[in-house]
Design a protein that fits this description.
Layout (H helix, E strand, L loop, with lengths): L2 H9 L1 H4 L5 H10 L1 E5 L5 H11 L3 E5 L24 H12 L4 E5 L5 H10 L2 E4 L4 H14 L2 E8 L2 E7 L9 H4 L9 H4 L3 H20 L8 E6 L4 E6 L12
Parallel strand pairs: 1-2, 1-4, 2-3, 4-5
Antiparallel strand pairs: 5-6, 6-7, 7-8
Helix pairs in contact: 4-10, 6-7
Protein backbone atom coordinates (compact mmCIF):
# COMPACT_ATOMS: atom_id res chain seq x y z
CA UNK A 1 0.00 0.00 0.00
CA UNK A 2 1.53 3.33 -1.05
CA UNK A 3 1.35 6.66 0.72
CA UNK A 4 -1.63 7.92 -1.29
CA UNK A 5 -3.65 4.88 -0.23
CA UNK A 6 -2.70 5.52 3.39
CA UNK A 7 -3.77 9.15 3.08
CA UNK A 8 -7.02 8.11 1.39
CA UNK A 9 -7.90 5.65 4.14
CA UNK A 10 -6.98 8.10 6.89
CA UNK A 11 -8.77 11.09 5.41
CA UNK A 12 -12.05 9.27 4.89
CA UNK A 13 -11.73 6.83 7.79
CA UNK A 14 -14.91 8.04 9.51
CA UNK A 15 -16.93 7.36 6.37
CA UNK A 16 -15.19 4.08 5.57
CA UNK A 17 -16.11 2.86 9.06
CA UNK A 18 -19.78 3.14 8.15
CA UNK A 19 -20.92 -0.29 6.93
CA UNK A 20 -23.27 1.37 4.42
CA UNK A 21 -20.28 3.15 2.82
CA UNK A 22 -17.14 1.11 3.46
CA UNK A 23 -14.08 1.18 1.25
CA UNK A 24 -16.09 0.26 -1.83
CA UNK A 25 -18.55 3.12 -1.38
CA UNK A 26 -15.73 5.55 -0.71
CA UNK A 27 -14.05 4.47 -3.93
CA UNK A 28 -17.31 5.11 -5.79
CA UNK A 29 -17.26 8.64 -4.43
CA UNK A 30 -13.66 9.02 -5.54
CA UNK A 31 -14.55 7.90 -9.06
CA UNK A 32 -17.68 10.05 -9.32
CA UNK A 33 -18.33 13.24 -11.25
CA UNK A 34 -20.98 15.61 -9.87
CA UNK A 35 -22.33 18.68 -11.64
CA UNK A 36 -23.57 21.51 -9.40
CA UNK A 37 -25.67 24.19 -11.07
CA UNK A 38 -25.39 27.37 -9.00
CA UNK A 39 -22.77 28.43 -6.48
CA UNK A 40 -25.13 30.42 -4.29
CA UNK A 41 -26.83 29.65 -1.00
CA UNK A 42 -27.59 26.02 -1.85
CA UNK A 43 -24.56 25.21 -3.98
CA UNK A 44 -22.12 26.55 -1.37
CA UNK A 45 -22.80 23.98 1.41
CA UNK A 46 -23.47 21.24 -1.13
CA UNK A 47 -20.06 21.73 -2.74
CA UNK A 48 -18.37 22.05 0.66
CA UNK A 49 -19.62 18.67 1.81
CA UNK A 50 -19.14 16.85 -1.49
CA UNK A 51 -15.53 17.99 -1.63
CA UNK A 52 -15.00 17.06 2.01
CA UNK A 53 -16.66 13.67 1.45
CA UNK A 54 -14.19 12.89 -1.35
CA UNK A 55 -16.18 13.15 -4.57
CA UNK A 56 -13.42 12.91 -7.15
CA UNK A 57 -14.57 15.49 -9.71
CA UNK A 58 -16.83 18.47 -9.05
CA UNK A 59 -18.04 20.55 -11.98
CA UNK A 60 -19.43 23.84 -10.69
CA UNK A 61 -21.44 26.17 -12.90
CA UNK A 62 -22.40 29.78 -12.18
CA UNK A 63 -22.24 32.85 -14.42
CA UNK A 64 -22.81 35.48 -11.69
CA UNK A 65 -20.21 37.46 -9.76
CA UNK A 66 -19.86 37.66 -5.99
CA UNK A 67 -21.74 40.56 -4.40
CA UNK A 68 -21.71 41.82 -0.83
CA UNK A 69 -25.32 40.72 -0.27
CA UNK A 70 -24.34 37.14 -1.19
CA UNK A 71 -22.04 36.71 1.79
CA UNK A 72 -24.91 36.42 4.29
CA UNK A 73 -25.67 32.89 3.06
CA UNK A 74 -23.26 31.90 0.26
CA UNK A 75 -20.61 30.56 2.60
CA UNK A 76 -18.18 29.38 -0.06
CA UNK A 77 -17.27 32.97 -0.97
CA UNK A 78 -15.11 35.43 0.97
CA UNK A 79 -15.06 39.22 1.20
CA UNK A 80 -11.91 39.29 -0.90
CA UNK A 81 -13.83 37.59 -3.75
CA UNK A 82 -16.38 40.38 -4.20
CA UNK A 83 -16.53 41.16 -7.90
CA UNK A 84 -15.03 37.82 -8.95
CA UNK A 85 -16.95 35.14 -10.87
CA UNK A 86 -18.66 32.87 -8.37
CA UNK A 87 -17.38 29.76 -10.13
CA UNK A 88 -13.77 30.89 -9.76
CA UNK A 89 -14.24 31.97 -6.14
CA UNK A 90 -15.84 28.63 -5.28
CA UNK A 91 -13.10 26.66 -7.02
CA UNK A 92 -10.42 28.40 -4.96
CA UNK A 93 -12.23 27.60 -1.71
CA UNK A 94 -12.82 23.97 -2.68
CA UNK A 95 -9.15 23.52 -3.63
CA UNK A 96 -8.23 24.71 -0.15
CA UNK A 97 -10.68 22.25 1.44
CA UNK A 98 -9.52 19.19 -0.50
CA UNK A 99 -6.67 19.44 -2.98
CA UNK A 100 -7.21 15.85 -4.14
CA UNK A 101 -10.61 16.72 -5.61
CA UNK A 102 -10.63 17.92 -9.21
CA UNK A 103 -12.73 21.07 -9.59
CA UNK A 104 -13.86 22.34 -12.99
CA UNK A 105 -15.31 25.84 -12.90
CA UNK A 106 -17.73 27.00 -15.60
CA UNK A 107 -18.30 30.75 -15.32
CA UNK A 108 -20.82 31.07 -18.13
CA UNK A 109 -24.43 29.96 -18.45
CA UNK A 110 -24.83 26.40 -19.66
CA UNK A 111 -27.60 25.92 -22.19
CA UNK A 112 -28.82 23.63 -24.95
CA UNK A 113 -26.24 21.15 -26.22
CA UNK A 114 -23.55 22.21 -23.75
CA UNK A 115 -25.91 21.74 -20.81
CA UNK A 116 -26.92 18.33 -22.15
CA UNK A 117 -23.27 17.36 -22.61
CA UNK A 118 -22.26 18.30 -19.06
CA UNK A 119 -25.27 16.54 -17.59
CA UNK A 120 -24.57 13.45 -19.66
CA UNK A 121 -21.02 13.32 -18.28
CA UNK A 122 -22.18 13.57 -14.65
CA UNK A 123 -23.12 10.73 -12.33
CA UNK A 124 -25.38 13.05 -10.33
CA UNK A 125 -26.59 16.61 -10.92
CA UNK A 126 -27.45 19.06 -8.16
CA UNK A 127 -29.81 21.85 -9.16
CA UNK A 128 -28.96 24.71 -6.80
CA UNK A 129 -30.36 27.43 -9.04
CA UNK A 130 -32.90 30.08 -8.07
CA UNK A 131 -35.26 30.28 -11.05
CA UNK A 132 -37.80 28.09 -12.81
CA UNK A 133 -36.24 28.51 -16.25
CA UNK A 134 -33.01 26.85 -15.14
CA UNK A 135 -34.78 24.21 -13.06
CA UNK A 136 -36.92 23.11 -15.98
CA UNK A 137 -33.98 23.06 -18.39
CA UNK A 138 -31.86 20.99 -15.99
CA UNK A 139 -34.77 18.65 -15.27
CA UNK A 140 -35.48 18.08 -18.96
CA UNK A 141 -31.83 17.35 -19.74
CA UNK A 142 -31.53 14.94 -16.80
CA UNK A 143 -34.66 13.07 -17.86
CA UNK A 144 -33.41 12.86 -21.46
CA UNK A 145 -30.01 11.54 -20.39
CA UNK A 146 -31.36 9.45 -17.48
CA UNK A 147 -29.04 11.24 -15.04
CA UNK A 148 -30.00 11.38 -11.37
CA UNK A 149 -30.99 14.87 -10.19
CA UNK A 150 -31.25 16.37 -6.71
CA UNK A 151 -33.28 19.57 -6.81
CA UNK A 152 -33.40 22.02 -3.91
CA UNK A 153 -35.02 25.37 -3.18
CA UNK A 154 -35.24 27.71 -0.20
CA UNK A 155 -36.86 31.03 0.62
CA UNK A 156 -37.76 32.89 3.81
CA UNK A 157 -37.74 30.16 6.52
CA UNK A 158 -38.80 27.32 4.18
CA UNK A 159 -37.02 24.83 1.98
CA UNK A 160 -37.78 21.82 -0.20
CA UNK A 161 -35.87 18.89 -1.65
CA UNK A 162 -36.70 16.43 -4.44
CA UNK A 163 -34.58 13.57 -5.78
CA UNK A 164 -35.30 12.41 -9.33
CA UNK A 165 -34.06 9.14 -10.82
CA UNK A 166 -35.20 9.19 -14.46
CA UNK A 167 -36.37 5.87 -15.79
CA UNK A 168 -37.75 4.63 -12.49
CA UNK A 169 -41.49 4.09 -12.48
CA UNK A 170 -41.88 5.67 -9.04
CA UNK A 171 -39.80 8.77 -9.77
CA UNK A 172 -41.75 11.82 -10.94
CA UNK A 173 -39.73 14.61 -12.51
CA UNK A 174 -39.75 18.30 -11.62
CA UNK A 175 -42.39 19.07 -14.25
CA UNK A 176 -44.74 16.54 -12.64
CA UNK A 177 -44.64 18.73 -9.54
CA UNK A 178 -44.52 22.12 -11.29
CA UNK A 179 -46.02 21.61 -14.75
CA UNK A 180 -46.28 25.28 -15.69
CA UNK A 181 -43.55 27.88 -15.88
CA UNK A 182 -44.88 30.58 -13.59
CA UNK A 183 -43.64 33.33 -11.34
CA UNK A 184 -40.85 32.27 -9.00
CA UNK A 185 -40.43 34.05 -5.69
CA UNK A 186 -36.87 35.24 -5.13
CA UNK A 187 -34.74 35.73 -2.04
CA UNK A 188 -33.93 39.28 -3.17
CA UNK A 189 -37.61 40.15 -2.85
CA UNK A 190 -38.86 37.82 -0.12
CA UNK A 191 -35.68 37.36 1.93
CA UNK A 192 -34.18 34.16 3.33
CA UNK A 193 -32.54 33.10 6.58
CA UNK A 194 -28.98 31.92 5.94
CA UNK A 195 -29.07 28.59 7.89
CA UNK A 196 -32.17 27.53 5.93
CA UNK A 197 -30.28 27.36 2.64
CA UNK A 198 -27.51 25.58 4.54
CA UNK A 199 -29.92 22.87 5.66
CA UNK A 200 -31.25 22.25 2.15
CA UNK A 201 -27.86 22.44 0.44
CA UNK A 202 -26.41 20.00 2.96
CA UNK A 203 -29.30 17.61 2.38
CA UNK A 204 -28.65 17.83 -1.37
CA UNK A 205 -25.06 16.74 -0.73
CA UNK A 206 -26.33 13.88 1.44
CA UNK A 207 -28.66 12.69 -1.32
CA UNK A 208 -25.81 12.80 -3.84
CA UNK A 209 -23.55 10.75 -1.56
CA UNK A 210 -26.32 8.17 -1.10
CA UNK A 211 -26.98 7.93 -4.83
CA UNK A 212 -23.29 7.47 -5.64
CA UNK A 213 -22.32 5.13 -2.82
CA UNK A 214 -25.52 3.10 -2.74
CA UNK A 215 -26.04 3.81 0.98
CA UNK A 216 -29.59 4.01 2.27
CA UNK A 217 -32.64 5.07 0.32
CA UNK A 218 -32.72 8.38 -1.57
CA UNK A 219 -35.80 10.59 -1.43
CA UNK A 220 -36.96 9.42 -4.84
CA UNK A 221 -40.65 10.09 -5.40
CA UNK A 222 -40.91 12.19 -2.26
CA UNK A 223 -40.94 15.92 -1.63
CA UNK A 224 -39.18 16.86 1.60
CA UNK A 225 -40.45 20.13 3.07
CA UNK A 226 -38.61 22.03 5.78
CA UNK A 227 -40.21 24.64 8.02
CA UNK A 228 -37.28 26.32 9.69
CA UNK A 229 -39.39 28.73 11.71
CA UNK A 230 -40.99 25.86 13.60
CA UNK A 231 -38.25 23.24 13.15
CA UNK A 232 -40.47 20.77 11.29
CA UNK A 233 -39.81 18.38 8.39
CA UNK A 234 -42.63 16.87 6.33
CA UNK A 235 -42.51 14.33 3.50
CA UNK A 236 -45.06 14.13 0.74
CA UNK A 237 -45.39 11.07 -1.49
CA UNK A 238 -45.46 12.08 -5.14
CA UNK A 239 -46.72 10.27 -8.21
CA UNK A 240 -45.71 10.64 -11.81
CA UNK A 241 -48.02 12.71 -13.94
CA UNK A 242 -49.18 10.42 -16.76
CA UNK A 243 -49.62 13.51 -18.92
CA UNK A 244 -46.24 15.07 -18.06
CA UNK A 245 -44.74 16.77 -21.10
CA UNK A 246 -41.26 15.66 -20.04
CA UNK A 247 -41.22 12.20 -18.48
CA UNK A 248 -44.51 10.55 -19.54
CA UNK A 249 -43.82 7.52 -21.70
Amino acid sequence: MNESDNNFNERYSRQIKLPQIGLEGQQRLRDARVLIIGMGGLGSPAAFYLASAGVGHLVISDFDRVELSNLQRQIIHREAAIGEPKADSARQTLNEINSSVRVTAIDWQLSDDELMCQIGLADVVLDCSDNFETRFAVNDACVASKTSLVSGAAIRFEGQLLTIEPGKSDSPCYRCLFPDEGFAETCSVEGVLSPVVGVIGTLQALEAVKLISGAGAPLTGQLLLFDGLNGVFNRLKLRKDPACVCCAS
